[in-house]
Amino acid sequence: MKLTIITPDKLAYEGDVTAVTVPGSAGSFQILKDHAAIVSTLDDGKVIIKDISGDHVIIIKGGVVEVKDNNIIVLAEGIVQE
């Protein structure tokens, strides 16, 4: 799967991942390969990224996530910590 995290200022992350956990407005949820297409609003919180080199955490300030055809795009209002 390909993950892209974008803020109004910069491209915060781009790469291949095996799983992503995002802070959905109705609660955190995990995205795995072949996840159903979805668009969801995001709260402030941790985006947990799993890739071949391990786990990474990016703390965002809200936003939106779109998942379609194993492409994940997170449009974050801002990044608190990478």
Descriptive account of the structure:
With 82 residues, the chain is mostly beta strands. It has one domain: F0F1 ATP synthase delta/epsilon subunit, N-terminal (ATP Synthase, domain 1). 0% of the residues lie in helices and 65% in strands. The protein is built from no helices and 10 strands. The strands form 2 sheets. Strands 2-1-9-8-5 form a 5-stranded mixed beta sheet, with no helix packed on it. Strands 4-3-6-7-10 form a 5-stranded antiparallel beta sheet, with no helix packed on it. The radius of gyration is 11 Å and the shape is globular. It is a peripheral membrane protein. Belongs to the ATPase epsilon chain family.
Descriptors for this entry?
82 residues, mainly beta, ATP Synthase, domain 1, 5-stranded mixed β-sheet, 5-stranded antiparallel β-sheet, 10 strands, 65% strand
